[in-house]
Amino acid sequence: MRSKIVAGNWKMNKNLAETEALLTELAAKLPDTTAEVMVAPTFVNLATAVNSLESSTINAIAQNMHFAESGAYTGEISADMLQSIGVDTVILGHSERRAYFGETDEILEKKVKTAITKNLRIVFCFGEELADRKSGNHFKVVESQIKNALFSLDKSAWGSIVLAYEPVWAIGTGETASAEQAQEMHAFIRKTITEAYNAEIANNVSILYGGSVKPANAKEIFSKPDVDGGLIGGAALVADDFVAIIKAI
Ligand code: PEP
Asked: Active-site residue 18, yes or no?
């Protein structure tokens, strides 16, 4: 059975005091839910977040990770470092990492393999750009992104994978894919995984939608059968909005 998940990606927002304040507010307002709730603060505040959420069910996760075990990679963070502070999940492949930091499918495949080897769970992001959707190429683009980074994995690795379909044109733009567009793509992703692996793996993987999810549209998007939750950017920075999105699931 796949789990329902609401994950907040805080990106490069919130200093230490702001991080502590938002975590305290979230922990206090967290509704009763069977969904997994995750937040991804910036690296410098991640250990603080892990500690401050110790008695909460909210999981503090990482926004990124390097593929190497250790070494001369100034400014980078390894899987071991994440684990050493109690982090068990990492976001990989966010469109901002792909667009601004040159993360290719090949690099992401290496990161995914390292994370799996190190027993980290992965929230793997992918999605087409506006030009791909306009030209009708969106299914092909999404298929190649997941195939290139994930389809060399053993079947056993899929228990550690959460997928996040995030059409680039909907991230931070206020423009959301319609619930029908999200459902159509999520169903396509499950079909692609069924063909590459099997129906059991495809049915057990959680597929989140990301792209301008807000309290006003969350319920409709989450109502679709192949949408298992959301990866939330802007709305995750406001406790009441994030809580409302959790309630919507
Ligand atoms: C994101 O960056 O993953 C995201 C979905 O952002 P937003 O919700 O702000 O569109």
From this structure: no
